[in-house]
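User: Continuing from earlier, I have the next pair ready.

Assistant: Great, send them over.

User: Here they are, in order.

Assistant: Folding the first of the pair now:
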Amino acid sequence: LREIPMRPGQLFMDPKRMIEACDENTIGVVPTFGVTYTGNYEFPQPLHDALDKFQADTGIDIDMHIDAASG
């Protein structure tokens, strides 16, 4: 399990930082669509696009599961 730590003002996964954590051993990426504490929503499309580019560049196909919740 690799976590992408949050930073001040950045509460969701950054596509660039996500890709930096991916390699041939990565089996999936799990963004959160709906945070029950805040009601915030992460936008999965930029993450999906980054994974598509990663696959085109490396041949490594990584699945994405969107963890959905709402208050």
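And the other member of the pair:
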Amino acid sequence: METIPLVMRFIRADMRDRKATELSVPQFRTLAFLDRNPGASLVELSEHL
């Protein structure tokens, strides 16, 4: 469990460095959730975020 905050910091720092993607962290999390949960409802997505 201690590695999760470290990984999230790494992902955030990497996303800030890659301005070409123009995705915010919440947008990235949304896309990742939808990729892992095809057909998820808006309620499921909002509960995840």
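Worth noting for the second one:
Residues 15 and 24 are 8 Å apart (CA to CA). Residues 3-48 form one domain.
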